[in-house]
Design brief:
Helices cover about 75% and strands about 0% of the residues. By secondary structure, it is mainly α. It has three domains: about 60 residues, lambda repressor-like DNA-binding domains (434 Repressor (Amino-terminal Domain), Orthogonal Bundle), CATH 1.10.260.40; about 100 residues; about 100 residues, Serine Threonine Protein Phosphatase 5, Tetratricopeptide repeat. The longest helix is centred in the C-terminal third of the chain and has 20 residues. It is elongated, with a radius of gyration of 21 Å. The model has no long low-confidence stretch (mean pLDDT about 85). One of its GO terms (molecular function) is DNA binding. InterPro entries: Cro/C1-type_HTH, HTH-type_regulator_Rgg, Lambda_DNA-bd_dom_sf, TPR-like_helical_dom_sf. It holds the Pfam family HTH_3. This is Transcriptional regulator.
Length: about 290
C-alpha cells in the first residue's frame, strides 16, 4: 500500500473527511493530492497528519517501503543543506537521480531543488542554478507550499549572487509573506534563511533601515526555533548595517553575539569574517 493509500485508509477508518484531516495543517486539495500519490508531503506536514490520525510517522510510512525511503532521503537532503555538506549532498543526488523513485513528479522536483543548491554552492554556478529553479517554478509540477518556498528562497539567493537584488527582493518578500500566512507548512530554518537573504537584498539596494529590519526578523525567528547555526549570520549582518550607519557600539554588541554563535557551531568561515569586521570597527572607533 502506498503512503497516500495508507493515509486515505486511516482517515476513512476514523470517519474523517479530507477537510477535517487538513484543518490547521494544509489545504483540503493538498490532502487530496497526497492521498492520490501526486505529491509526497513535507516532513513537517506528514508529522502533523500522523498525529491527527493517531499514529507515529513510522507507522504511517512503514506500509510502503518506497515512501519510507523517499522520506529518509528528503530528511538527509535537508540535513546536508543545513550543515552545508555539499559533497555529501551531491553524492546522494547522484545516487537518487538514477533510482526509479526519481520518476515520481514531486520527488523529482525536490531532487532538482537540491541539485540547484549544489550547483550554486559547490560548483559556484549561480546562473545555472537560476535556470534550474526557474524551470522548476514554471513547469506544471505539483509543488507543495513548502517546496515552493524552498525553491523561491534558493532562487533569491542565486539572484543576489548574480547582482540582481531587486528581483531577489521581490521573490523573497513574496515567499516570506506566504510563509507567515501558513508557518506550519515550512521547516523552521526556511523562513529564517529567507529573512536573512532579504536583509542582504535590501543592503545591496542601499536600504539600510529595511536591511536591519530583516536581519532582526531573522534573529527573532532563529531564537524562537533555537536555530543557533543561523543566529551568527544574522547577528553579523546586523553588525555590518549598524557599522555603516555610524552606530559602532551597537554593531560591536552584535559582533560579540555573532562570535559566540560562531564558536558554538564551530563555523571557521564565520569566525574569520567576524574577526575582519572587529578590526574595522576598532579602527573606526579609534578614528572617531
Amino acid at each position: 500500500m502506498s503512503l497516500g493509500q495508507t493515509i486515505r485508509t486511516l482517515r476513512q477508518r476514523r470517519g474523517m473527511s479530507q477537510s477535517e484531516l487538513a484543518e490547521g495543517i494544509c489545504t483540503q486539495s493538498e490532502i487530496s493530492r497526497i492521498e492520490n500519490d501526486l505529491v509526497l508531503p513535507q516532513l513537517n506536514t506528514l508529522k502533523k497528519i500522523a498525529a491527527r490520525l493517531g499514529v507515529t510517522l513510522y507507522e504511517l510510512s512503514e506500509g510502503s517501503e518506497e515512501s519510507s525511503q523517499r522520506i529518509e532521503t528528503l530528511r538527509r537532503i535537508h540535513r546536508y543543506v543545513r550543515q552545508q555538506k555539499w559533497q555529501e549532498l551531491a553524492a546522494l543526488l547522484d545516487e537518487e537521480e538514477q533510482s526509479a523513485a526519481s520518476r515520481e513528479p514531486f520527488f523529482r522536483a525536490a531532487l532538482t531543488w537540491a541539485r540547484a543548491v549544489v550547483v550554486m554552492e559547490a560548483e559556484e554556478k549561480p546562473h545555472r542554478a537560476i535556470t534550474l529553479l526557474h524551470n522548476l517554478l514554471h513547469k506544471m509540477v505539483p509543488l507543495t507550499l513548502a517546496l515552493q518556498g524552498q525553491v523561491e528562497m534558493t532562487l533569491g539567493d542565486a539572484l543576489l549572487r548574480t547582482a540582481q537584488p531587486e528581483e531577489a527582493r521581490h521573490i523573497l518578500e513574496r515567499a516570506f509573506h506566504r510563509m507567515e500566512s501558513a508557518p506550519s507548512q515550512y521547516e523552521p530554518w526556511v523562513p529564517v534563511r529567507t529573512a536573512y537573504l532579504l536583509s542582504l537584498a535590501h543592503w545591496q539596494l542601499q536600504q539600510a533601515t529595511r536591511s536591519l529590519y530583516w536581519a532582526e526578523t531573522a534573529l527573532e525567528l532563529a531564537d524562537a526555533h533555537d536555530l543557533s547555526y543561523l543566529v551568527g549570520q544574522a547577528h553579523l549582518q546586523a553588525a555590518v548595517v549598524l557599522a555603516h550607519t555610524g552606530r559602532s557600539a551597537e554593531a560591536h554588541r552584535h559582533l560579540e553575539k555573532a562570535a559566540c554563535a560562531a564558536r558554538l557551531t564551530d563555523d571557521a568561515s564565520l569566525q574569520a569574517e567576524i574577526a575582519q569586521w572587529e578590526g574595522m570597527l576598532f579602527a573606526q572607533r579609534q578614528n572617531s
